[in-house]
Write a structure and sequence with these properties.
The protein contains ten helices and ten strands. The chain is an alpha+beta fold and about 280 residues long. It binds protoporphyrin IX containing FE (HEM).
Length: about 280
């Protein structure tokens, strides 16, 4: 055997051992994942959907659920980019931070620090991302057997109201943006034409996030007053949003300084945007 042949055989043996190592590694990591997942807490889409904002932000990514509440302020984009996916099956967003570009391996390693469970269906079986996304959309295309979905009596009623131009009962979300900045993002429910569960998913001005201010911050009264606006509208008929044009009718203590920044009309605009967009979900 000449030197070349020896070198070639040694090279082939080296490549073969590398390939074996790689496949052993692949096998053991997938085994480990499966075993780990069985040990994780089971979380349903309904439970996931309860954590849909900055106060508590859970995301389902590739079948696992992560509580990334603490990470949201550190994410290297505007918060809306990442908040939009809270409470949802987020694999699509994760795999496409920009269209076609997934997050880096470093980001993946960070994500695992926030692991809290695995996504399951109503029977406790693992729920794949595609099935979860379809379930969130209400599986509009049809049922599991491929039958076209029929209108249920509730849907029929909704269609009837929509045709008459009446706002439908349901959960709404709407925003007011100006100068390229989202300033108000409001969520509310409508029941028999009355408002409930009003909350701000976002409230900011010039990069200052009012929801994160400390009580001793100069701007804190602005946040407090916006909360008063929401409380005053709670249980009121939808038409009460017109009072937002005169916020002093709804909020107390509007002094000169904070009065200048309390813009009830922005909140009004976000409500109108929500109504224009139509029902966001049927809670
Ligand atoms: C699922 C919703 C998410 C969306 C839509 C999203 C979107 C983005 C965007 C647009 C960027 C900046 C653009 C770029 O780097 O090219 C980015 C970067 C980054 N994101 Fe996210 N992100 C999401 C969730 C997360 C989560 C949950 C984490 C970590 C726990 C995370 C960690 C990072 C990191 C570390 C970067 C820096 C770039 C990289 O390492 O890939 N992101 N993301």
């Amino acid at each position: 055997m000449n030197i070349n042949k020896i070198a070639y055989s040694a090279f082939v043996a080296f490549v073969a051992s590398l390939a074996t190592l790689v496949s052993i590694q692949a096998l053991s990591s997938s085994d480990r994942d499966a075993a780990d997942d069985d040990a994780l807490d089971s979380i349903t889409l309904d439970e996931l959907a309860e954590h849909d904002g900055a106060e508590s932000c859970w995301k389902a990514i590739h079948g696992r659920v992560y509580d990334i509440t603490d990470y949201v302020p550190d994410h290297p984009t505007e918060e809306e980019v990442i908040l939009e996916w809270c409470g949802r099956e987020s694999t699509e967003g994760w795999d496409n931070k920009r269209p076609g570009v997934p997050h880096s391996a470093r980001a993946e390693a960070m994500l695992e620090e926030y692991l809290i469970g695995r996504l399951v269906d109503g029977d406790g079986e693992p729920l794949e991302p595609e099935a979860a996304a379809r379930a969130e959309e209400g599986d509009e295309a049809g049922d599991a057997d491929g039958e076209p979905a029929r209108l249920s009596p509730a849907e029929d009623e909704r269609l009837h109201r929509a045709l008459l131009g009446l706002p439908l009962d349901g959960r709404y979300r709407g925003v007011f943006s100006d100068g390229g900045e989202m300033q108000v993002n409001v969520q509310f429910d409508l029941r028999d034409g009355r408002l409930s569960n009003i909350s701000y998913r976002h409230l900011a001005y010039r990069g200052e996030d009012y929801r994160r201010l400390d009580e001793d911050d100069d701007l804190y009264p602005v946040w407090a007053q916006h909360q008063q606006l929401a409380e005053a509208l709670e249980g009121q008929p939808l038409t009460a949003i017109f009072a937002l044009y005169e916020p002093e009718r709804l909020a107390e203590d509007i002094d000169g300084y904070s009065g200048a920044t309390l813009r009830g009309n922005k909140v009004h605009s976000a409500f109108r945007d929500a109504l224009n967009r139509g029902v966001y979900s049927w809670p």
